[in-house]
Description:
Layout: E1 2-3, H1 6-14, E2 20-23, H2 27-32, E3 39-40, H3 48-56, E4 63-66, H4 74-83, E5 90-93, H5 96-109
Parallel strand pairs: 1-5, 2-3, 2-4, 4-5
Amino acid sequence: MNTIDAQTLKQWQADHRSFLLLNVLSADAFEKEHIPESVNVPVNATDFVAQVERLAGDKARAVVTYCASMECDASTRAARNLEAPGFKDVTDFKGGMKEWNETKRGVSAA
């Protein structure tokens, strides 16, 4: 499984790279805060893989999973759940919202 940091993810977005950005936390957590352009499919949903496949279009599309922070394992579990049935290009943004927000603050402070 690939991993990514916030700076690289921001660059991918700026470059308009084609990928599905997936928030795998609960709908409530997603409503509170999420990365722009991301969609929400909770990792604990019984039809998690089917929902992601529907959103992605096919298993060859790049998917980036994220959750709350390095202390949260939901994005890693989600990435593994997608790789098992054959998703080809899955990346885990382990730093999640915490790293995203820290990077955002660092950028705006400059």
